[in-house]
Amino acid sequence: MKNSHFWRKTKSALASAASFVCALLVIAPLALVFLHLLRSGASAVNWSFFTELPKPVGVAGGGMVNAIAGSFELLGLAALVGVPVGVFGGVYLAEYGTVRGNWLLRFVADVLNGVPSIIWGVVVYGLVVLRFKSFSAYAGGLALGFIMIPLIMRTTEEVLLLVPAGYREASLALGISRWKTIVHIVMKTALKGIVTAILLALARVAGETAPLLFTAFGNRFWNHDLSEPIAALPLQIFSYAISPYDDWHRQAWAGALVLVVTIFFVNILVRFLTRERVARVL
Amino acid sequence: MESAAIIDPPMITPVSLPQQQVASGSEPADVAPERPPAFAVERLSIFYGEKKAIEDVTLTIPSKMITAIIGPSGCGKSTLLRSLNRMHELAPNTRIEGKVLFAGDDIYAPEVDPVVIRRRIGMVFQKSNPFPTMSIAENVLVGLKLNGVRDRAFLRERLEQSLRMAALWDEVKNDLHKPGISLSGGQQQRLCIARAIAVEPEVLLMDEPASALDPIATAKIEELIHELSANYTVVIVTHNMQQAGRCSDYTAFLYLGRLIEFASTTKIFTNPSERQTEDYITGRFG
């Protein structure tokens, strides 16, 4: 009797220890990456990094202002594609779809979520770049937007389904039409969740490099025309990192640090929003 | 395709609302001494898929009176109530046979828009459900605002009037901007009643409106229902027989989807014609 009790406690302790180690393994990479980035990149993150264009090889200094701006432009274009299609796709799934149609749509969205991002680059290369015979910001934004659609769609569906059916019934029973019920009652109740879905999708595509190689292409100068190639932070990091120059390597580290810190803060913001939303719905 | 029936044209023109107000406003004028019934349910059967929830029910629900629907759990009383403003259609695969006439018109006629029906026939649910994103005032006025009413003076007036009718005004008049869900359970339910009457329906359907409330809040709701019956036709589903006895004029007893007996509440509770009614009333089953 006593013996089996001892065994049970030992097994329990072992299981706890194993899960603790695994949890540590999840957290450790983030901490290590972050520390390494800080050590290698922090010295190159300075005022001119955010305000100056890249300098030619051999000239010291310079920054990535064009890439930072380019990333924001690309994210804006991506949001124009990904947000409406994703959000209203999610509305369809949660509010309108039939059981069988939804099964198919969810399946397709999940497959699309798993498609390697470089495929989207190739697809848009074929659809846009070849047709207009130019790499462009539009093409880059479209590729990122495609990646956002299934992400936003599935999350939007989930947060809409969290809205209790009683609110829909109450609204419909007031003689409010189905569409107005969805927009003014259901979506409004789930607004924070939808914003969260959008932010997470933006954070996810902000770091994408592969789909931009074939589409936005990169640019060492300011771009004032969205139908021309445009710089993006991940692209700039990529091209600086594979270069043979120490100065550029430092800048690549700095760019990576800026990117990771930005995404980190977006995620913290999302945490904050979700906590509020859950408190509100429940 | 139930969904086809519920998907409405996205926009309702504000024009439809004044029309409806005229209709309800002029209603007392053409009430004959012998009032026409609010609802005439004729041989109604309701199916959820293959399952028959209501079978061959015929009854007339009098206007400006309180009619209670009682019966054991699962007897179809909620389904019958919800069929009166087509809310049961929100469940998938519903089908009806027979007719529901409201003020003489078949509400299931193909050209009838359920949205319009529901504006004339309001509903209060078992679980109070004020919209969590809205203040007390916004909750009361949401039905009007989303149907295009913009006149601020009118909205203001309707806000006070609805809250007064729901016996809530004195408790919330200084907190109108506070969230609706900050109120207590009983207050929330009265807020839902205020929200339902703000759009000036002709009928209020109530699905066990007090079953989640404590006895004091229940008493307030019952008193309120009694007062509302001066202006509205009220149909209330309850599994609480004392409640039906206390606050209704007529009572319908349903059992296994069939209407067993429909008569004045006094008769049902003192001298029922049917054996099953008597057994249920006296607590022998259900």
Q: What is the correct CATH architecture of the domain at 68-233 in chain A?
A: Orthogonal Bundle
Beta-strand fraction estimate of chain A:
under 5%
Rg of chain A is 23 Å
Overall morphology of chain B? globular
The portion of residues assigned to helices of chain B is 25-40%
Low-confidence stretches of chain B: 1-33
Number of helices of chain B: 12
Note poorly predicted spans of chain A: 278-282
Helix-strand sequence of chain B: HHEEEHEEHEHHHHEHEHEEHH
Quickly give the structural class of chain A. mainly alpha
Oligomer: heterodimer
Please provide a written account of the structure.
The complex is a heterodimer of chains A (282) and B (286). By secondary structure, chain A is an all-alpha fold. Chain A has a domain at 68-233: MetI-like fold, CATH 1.10.3720.10. Chain A is built from twelve helices and no strands. Chain A has helices at residues 2-41, 47-51, 65-96, 99-114, 117-132, 137-161, 165-173, 178-189, 191-206, 210-213, 233-241, 246-281. Residues 278-282 of chain A have low confidence and may be disordered. Chain B starts with a helix and ends in a 5-residue tail after the last helix. Chain B has helices spanning 2-6, 16-26, 77-83, 114-120, 136-145, 152-165, 169-172, 185-198, 215-228, 241-247, 265-270, 275-281; strands spanning 39-48, 51-61, 66-70, 94-102, 105-106, 121-124, 203-207, 233-237, 250-255, 258-264. The longest helix of chain B has 14 residues, at 152-165. Helix content of chain B is 37%, strand content 22%. Chain B has 286 residues and is an alpha/beta fold. In chain B, the strands form two sheets. Chain B has a six-stranded mixed beta sheet, with helices on both faces. Chain B has a four-stranded antiparallel beta sheet with strand order 2-1-4-5, covered by helices on one side. Chain B has twelve helices and ten strands. Chains A and B meet through helix 7 and helix 8 of A and helix 4 and helix 8 of B.
